């Protein structure tokens, strides 16, 4: 299955299927993205990636800061009619240059802007975590389905060469029968006034941010869905950063094969790691899920060997992600990281919080 996934992702560049009329009218064949939220990720990471894309272009910006929006639009040659505020965002319905809306806002705003985008007839790329609750995630999927529009979650690691190679090795038995996965992700939070530390905007603490990478890694490395979770939280509530959200949380996932995953996230130390142990060896990544500079090696009988992924298209994980959704729009295929994939994570996230709160194991397979 993962080979199919990788082949599909890597062959996306080769597809030259018919583009919608608006792209054809523009003559470049690329589909247009509107970036909603000109913050550190939307402006700092995503917008600079369009130059690496084969099928995607920047078509509009949506911001609460008119001067910043104008500056970014000028830098990228966008016309004034392609600048939107949050209040007049729904006018985007009338902009034929925009095919896809990319939601790069605080977590609690993802549902609203995804649903408004779908109702405006646009496809949606939504950042992780997909939403702040299962109920919101379900309403986002329903809105996109009703509008017959694609919904993809910004899980960039599914387009990152080391993570793709680690999945391929794990799923083809390079480490033998998978027994255990460990994944830890964290960084040191500073300013207590940041939205990530405000529950109303973040939906939670480190789990809703870096914890999503640990959870995703456990699922994509095992290739299984967990049947139970047991979690524990440790937060110094006298620390002004952690009055509203958790600092450290760890959780153990149990998989049908008997494999376990020990996952963790925190806001008080920097870490970024994935380790898989099988009965014939191990696969390690550290750093594992950074924007660049990831490293991987395999281990067997006390020997370690560095692994480089096979050469693929000279695209970054971000460009691969942006172009993948375009190809899905063109071909009608479901994104490999669809809204349903985001919803699966949200269900587990809610169970992790519940387990930590109630001090007991929560079943995810409906069994008592
Ligand atoms: P940020 O704080 O740098 O940017 C947030 C943007 O939202 C800003 O432009 C801000 O002005 C705007 N905004 C609108 N209403 C706001 C409000 N009420 N409060 C605060 N900001 C408001 O955050 P970011 O790091 O760009 O994160 C945005 C989203 O992207 C989050 O969901 C985050 O999880 C995700 N993200 C993903 C990755 C990744 O690697 N996939 C990396 C970083 C962030």
UniProtKB/TrEMBL annotation:
Pfam families: GFO_IDH_MocA, GFO_IDH_MocA_C. InterPro entries: Gfo/Idh/MocA-like_OxRdtase_C, Gfo/Idh/MocA-like_OxRdtase_N, Gfo/Idh/MocA_oxidrdct_glycsds, Glc-Fru_OxRdtase_bac, NAD(P)-bd_dom_sf. One of its GO terms (molecular function) is oxidoreductase activity. Residues 32-155 form the Gfo/Idh/MocA-like oxidoreductase N-terminal domain. Keywords: Oxidoreductase. Residues 176-363 form the Gfo/Idh/MocA-like oxidoreductase C-terminal domain. It comes from the Bacteria. PANTHER family: BCDNA.GH03377. This is Glucose-fructose oxidoreductase.
């Amino acid at each position: 299955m993962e080979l199919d996934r990788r082949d599909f992702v890597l062959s996306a560049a080769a597809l030259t299927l018919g583009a919608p009329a608006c792209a054809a009218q523009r003559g470049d064949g690329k589909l247009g993205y509107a970036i909603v939220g000109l913050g550190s990720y939307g402006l700092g990471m995503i917008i600079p990636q369009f130059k690496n894309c084969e099928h995607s272009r920047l078509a509009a910006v949506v911001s609460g800061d008119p001067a910043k929006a104008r500056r970014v639009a000028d830098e990228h040659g966008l016309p004034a009619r392609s600048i939107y505020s949050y209040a007049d965002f729904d006018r985007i319905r009338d902009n034929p240059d925009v095919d896809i809306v990319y939601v790069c806002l605080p977590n609690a705003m993802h549902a609203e802007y995804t649903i408004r985008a779908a109702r405006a007839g646009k496809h949606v790329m939504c950042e992780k975590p997909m939403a702040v609750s299962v109920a919101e995630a379900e309403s986002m999927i329903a809105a996109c389905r009703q509008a017959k529009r694609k919904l993809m979650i910004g899980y960039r690691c599914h387009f990152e060469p080391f993570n793709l190679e680690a999945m391929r090795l794990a799923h083809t038995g390079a480490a033998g029968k998978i027994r255990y996965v460990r994944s830890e992700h964290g960084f040191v939070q500073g300013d207590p006034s940041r939205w990530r530390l405000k529950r109303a905007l973040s939906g939670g603490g480190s789990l809703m941010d870096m914890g999503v990478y640990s959870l995703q890694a456990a699922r994509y490395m095992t290739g299984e869905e967990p049947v139970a979770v047991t979690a524990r939280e440790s937060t110094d509530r006298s620390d002004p950063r952690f009055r509203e959200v958790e600092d450290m949380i760890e959780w153990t996932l149990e998989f049908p094969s008997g494999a376990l995953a020990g996952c963790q996230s925190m806001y008080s130390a920097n870490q970024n790691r994935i380790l898989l142990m099988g009965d014939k060896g191990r696969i390690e990544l550290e750093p594992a899920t950074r924007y660049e500079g990831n490293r991987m090696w395999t281990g067997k009988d006390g020997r370690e060997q560095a692994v480089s992924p096979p050469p693929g298209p000279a695209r970054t994980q971000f460009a691969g992600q942006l172009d993948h959704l375009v190809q899905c729009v063109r071909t009608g295929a479901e994104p490999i990281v669809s809204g349903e994939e985001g919803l699966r994570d949200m269900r587990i996230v809610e169970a992790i919080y519940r387990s930590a709160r109630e001090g007991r194991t929560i079943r995810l397979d409906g069994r008592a």
